[in-house]
Write a structure and sequence with these properties.
The structure holds two protein chains of two kinds. Chain A is of the alpha+beta class. Chain A has two domains: about 180 residues, no CATH class; about 180 residues, no CATH class. In chain A, about 55% of the residues lie in helices and about 20% in strands. In chain A, the strands form two sheets. A six-stranded mixed barrel of chain A has the order 3-4-9-6-8-7. Chain A has a two-stranded antiparallel ribbon with strand order 2-10. Chain A is elongated, with a radius of gyration of 33 Å. About 0% of the residues of chain A have low confidence. By secondary structure, chain B is of the alpha/beta class. Chain B is about 35% helix and about 30% strand. Chain B is built from seven helices and ten strands. Chain B has a six-stranded mixed sheet with strand order 6-7-8-3-9-10, with helices on both faces. Chain B has a four-stranded antiparallel sheet with strand order 2-1-4-5, with helices on one face. In chain B, a hairpin with a 2-residue loop joins strand 4 and strand 5. The model of chain B has no long low-confidence stretch (mean pLDDT about 95). The chains are: A alpha+beta, B alpha/beta. At the A-B interface, helix 1, helix 10, helix 11 and helix 13 of A face helix 2 and helix 3 of B. Bound molecules: adenosine-5'-triphosphate and magnesium ion. Magnesium ion binds next to helix 1 of chain B.
C-alpha cells in the first residue's frame, strides 16, 4: 500500500518535470540558505568560544591611563601610571589568584638572514598561568630570570615558524632590537584572539629585561598593563571593587576625581561577544527561514493547481473505491516528496556553499548533524503543513462532481 | 422488507439537482427491484434520468428522497468511507468513456481497486493479470491506455470493475463510444459474466444491445414507464 502510493507520488512528480523542479527550487533555495547561514553562524560561534577559552578564565585587565571613551586601546597609550608594586599589592587582595604585569612593545626580531616584526611582552612566569598557556618545547623563564633581567625569550609558534622554519629554535640566539636573546622555549599554539589577532605572533621576555634593556621606561618599575585572575567567577565583582579601592588609595586619587587607570572584566566582555555572535547566527537563520516559508507557499500553490488539474483522476479513484483518507495521503505524500527532495538538494548546495565560503574567505564554517536534522524536520513539516490544505481539498471532492469535471 | 436474493431495491426514489434557478427534479418516484443474477437493460430517451439513476445505484451520488437498499442494507445513512467500500467491493461500475487513468499501465489500472482494498502487491499483480488475460489483453499489460483501441479500453475497464469480484455490475452506456461490431464483443463479455451469476444493470439506447438483457426497464421523464422481460425481436 505505502510502496504503491510512493510510486504514485513519484509518477505524478515525473509527469510534469519542469513544474516539479521549479516548485522544488523554492525549497532548495530555502534549505540551502538555512544550512549555509547556520554553518557560517555556528562557525563564528565556535571561533569566539575558542578565543574565549584561549583567553583564560575569570580575567581582569588593568590598563594604565583612564579611558572614558572608546575601547580598550585608546587610553592605554599615555602615561604609565601602573607599577610592579601596584601589581604586587593587588596580588595580596583576597580572591585574587594570580597577577601578571605586562610591558608590551613592537620590535624587529632577527635570526640569521630572517627578520620578523612582532609584539614583545615583558612579563612574569605568572602570565602563562593566568592565560593557561603551556610551553610546547623547552621551558619557561623563571622568577629568578625576572629578578636578574636575563636575556631569555619564549617564542610564539608564528614567530618560531617565520624565523626558524623547520629548524629547532631552542638554545639559539636571536636579536630583539639589536640585543641578543637566548630562546629557552616555544609556546603552545593559542590561535586567534576575540578581536581576530594571531596570538601566536608574540615573544615573551622577563618583565625587567623589557623595562631596562629593550623598551626603556621613564621610571623603573612602570608597567603598561596588568592581567589579574580571580579565584572564581563568583568573587569577580568583589575583586573588581577592591582593586578599584586599592589603586585609588595607592595613587592618592581624591574623592570625585577620575581614575588614572582602567579596569575591565575580560570575562564579561567575552561573554557579551559570545552572546552577540549567538544572536547574529540566530538572526541569519531566521532570515534564511523566510525563504523556506516562501518555498512552502510555492508547494501549496502548485499542489492546488495539481488538484484542480487532476479532479477527474480523483473522481475515477473515488468511483472505484478510494476512501477520502487514501486521496488525502496521496496528495500529502506528493507534497512531502517534493519538499524532502528539495531539502536534499538544498542540503547539498548549502554544504557546497559553506565549503566554498571556507575556501574563499577562510572563515570557519561548521555543519553539524543537528542542523541537517533540523533542515529535514522543517522540510517535512513544511511539506505536511502546506500540502495538507490542497490534499484535504482533493479528498473532499464529491465523486460525481469530480467525474463530471472536464 | 428486504428479501433474500434481492441485490437492488429502490422505493419512491426522488432526485432533484440543485441549480442556480432552484431545484430541478429529475427522478420522480422511481421503484425498482433487481434480484441476484438478473440482467437488466435500462432504456429511455435522452434526459429521462437514466444516468442520474445509475449514479445513485452506484453510490456515486445520493438520492434526494426515498430508499435504496443494496444487498439488503440501506445505503442512505452510510458514511463516505462505507460508500467507498461499497464502490470498491460490492459494485463494479463501467462508464461510457472508459475512465482509465492515462498515466498508468493497463495492469496497474486493473489493479487499482485492489490497492484500495488493501491487497498485497503480488496478489494484485496476479489478479490483474488473470483478468487482463480473461478479456484477451494479457499481452498489453504494460502498455498505457492510449496505445489501445476504444473497445480494448472498455475491456480493461470491465476487467477493473471485476477485479474485486463484485456481486453487481453497473454499466452506463458501455458501448456508447464503440462501433457495432465491437459493441457486440463487449456485450458477449457481459453475457458471459451474467451466466456466471453476476447481476448486471446496463443503460443503452440501442435495441439490439438491450436484446442481450433478460429484462428491460424504460424511463420517461424521470419515471419508469415500462418494466418487463425482453421480447424476442421479430
Ligand atoms: N449535475 C446536474 N445538474 C443539473 N442538472 C443535471 C445534472 N446532471 C443532469 N442534469 C439534468 O438531469 C436530466 C437527466 O439527466 P441524465 O444524465 O440522468 O439523463 P440520461 O437519461 O442519462 O440522458 P442521456 O441518455 O443523454 O445520457 C437532464 O435534463 C440533465 O440536464
Ligand atoms: Mg446518460
Amino acid at each position: 500500500m505505502t510502496w504503491a502510493m510512493l510510486q504514485e507520488a513519484w509518477r505524478a512528480m515525473g509527469a510534469n518535470r519542469m513544474r516539479t523542479f521549479l516548485t522544488m527550487l523554492g525549497m532548495v533555495i530555502g534549505v540551502g540558505a538555512v544550512v549555509l547561514m547556520m554553518a557560517v553562524g555556528q562557525g563564528a560561534q565556535y571561533r569566539v568560544n575558542q578565543s574565549i577559552t584561549s583567553m583564560g578564565s575569570n580575567l581582569f585587565i588593568l590598563l594604565s591611563g583612564s579611558t572614558t571613551a572608546g575601547g580598550l586601546r585608546t587610553g592605554s597609550g599615555g602615561v604609565n601610571t601602573l607599577t610592579v608594586a601596584d601589581a604586587n599589592a593587588i596580588a595580596e587582595l583576597p580572591g585574587v589568584q594570580a597577577v601578571a604585569p605586562l610591558h608590551p612593545g613592537g620590535a624587529q626580531v632577527v635570526y640569521g638572514p630572517n627578520n620578523w616584526s612582532t609584539q614583545v611582552y615583558g612579563t612574569t612566569p605568572d602570565y602563562l598561568e593566568v592565560r593557561s598557556w603551556p610551553v610546547a618545547k623547552g621551558y619557561a623563564f623563571s622568577d629568578s630570570d625576572v629578578r636578574s633581567a636575563t636575556r631569555v625569550a619564549l617564542l610564539g609558534q608564528t614567530v618560531a615558524k617565520n624565523l626558524f622554519g623547520d629548524e629547532d629554535p631552542v638554545g639559539k640566539t636571536i636579536r630583539i632590537k639589536q640585543s641578543p636573546f637566548t630562546v629557552v622555549g616555544i609556546l603552545a599554539v593559542k590561535g586567534q584572539s576575540l578581536d581576530g589577532r594571531d596570538q601566536d605572533d608574540t615573544i615573551m621576555i622577563p618583565l625587567t629585561t623589557a623595562q631596562r634593556k629593550v623598551f626603556g621606561t621613564q621610571f623603573q618599575g612602570a608597567v603598561r598593563l596588568v592581567m589579574i585572575q580571580a579565584a572564581s567567577q563568583d568573587v569577580m565583582p568583589r575583586v573588581e571593587r577592591s582593586i578599584n579601592e586599592l589603586l585609588r588609595q595607592r595613587h592618592h586619587i581624591r574623592e570625585g576625581a577620575d581614575d588614572d587607570f582602567t579596569l575591565r572584566n575580560l570575562t564579561a566582555l567575552a561573554d557579551s561577544a559570545a552572546e552577540m555572535t549567538r544572536i547574529m547566527s540566530l538572526l541569519l537563520g531566521a532570515i534564511a527561514s523566510v525563504s523556506l516559508v516562501v518555498g512552502g507557499i510555492g508547494i501549496m500553490n502548485i499542489m492546488l493547481v495539481s488538484v484542480t488539474e487532476r479532479t477527474r483522476e480523483i473522481g475515477i479513484r473515488l468511483a472505484i473505491g478510494a476512501r477520502q483518507g487514501n486521496i488525502l495521503l496521496q496528495f500529502l505524500l506528493e507534497a512531502l516528496m517534493i519538499s524532502i527532495l528539495g531539502c536534499l538538494i538544498g542540503l547539498l548546495l548549502g554544504v557546497g556553499g559553506a565549503v566554498l565560503v571556507n575556501v574563499i574567505t577562510g572563515m570557519t564554517v561548521i555543519i553539524s548533524g543537528s542542523s541537517v536534522l533540523v533542515a529535514f524536520a522543517v522540510a517535512g513539516g513544511i511539506g505536511i503543513f502546506f500540502g495538507y490544505y490542497p490534499a484535504r481539498k482533493a479528498a473532499r471532492l464529491d465523486p460525481i462532481e469530480a467525474l463530471r469535471y472536464q | 422488507m428486504a428479501q433474500a436474493g434481492q441485490v437492488i431495491r429502490v422505493e419512491h426514489l426522488y432526485k432533484a439537482y440543485v441549480t442556480p434557478v432552484g431545484p430541478f427534479p429529475v427522478l420522480k418516484d422511481v421503484n425498482l427491484t433487481v434480484a441476484a443474477g438478473e440482467f437488466v437493460a435500462v432504456m429511455g430517451p435522452s434526459g429521462s434520468g437514466k444516468s442520474t439513476f445509475m449514479n445513485i445505484l452506484g453510490c456515486l451520488d445520493r438520492a434526494s428522497e426515498g430508499h435504496y437498499l443494496l444487498a439488503g442494507r440501506s445505503v442512505e445513512e452510510r458514511s463516505p468511507d462505507e460508500l467507498a467500500a461499497l464502490r470498491n467491493r460490492t459494485i463494479g461500475f463501467v462508464f461510457q468513456g472508459f475512465n482509465l487513468l492515462p498515466r498508468m499501465s493497463l495492469q496497474d489500472n486493473v489493479a487499482l481497486p485492489l490497492v484500495y482494498a488493501g491487497v498485497e502487491l503480488d496478489e494484485r499483480r496476479r489478479r490483474a493479470r488473470e483478468l487482463l488475460d480473461r478479456v484477451g489483453l494479457g499481452k498489453y499489460a504494460e502498455s498505457l491506455p492510449n496505445r489501445i483501441s476504444g473497445g480494448q479500453q472498455q475491456r480493461v475497464a470491465i476487467a477493473r470493475a471485476l477485479v474485486n469480484k463484485p456481486a453487481l455490475i453497473l454499466a452506463d452506456e458501455p458501448t456508447g463510444n464503440l462501433d457495432s461490431h465491437t459493441s457486440h464483443e463487449i456485450m458477449a463479455l457481459f453475457d458471459e459474466l451474467n451466466s456466471e451469476g453476476i447481476t448486471i444493470v446496463l443503460v443503452t439506447h440501442e435495441q439490439d444491445i438491450a436484446q442481450h438483457a433478460k429484462r428491460q426497464v424504460r424511463f420517461l421523464d424521470g419515471q419508469i414507464v415500462h418494466d418487463g422481460p425482453t421480447e424476442v425481436a421479430a
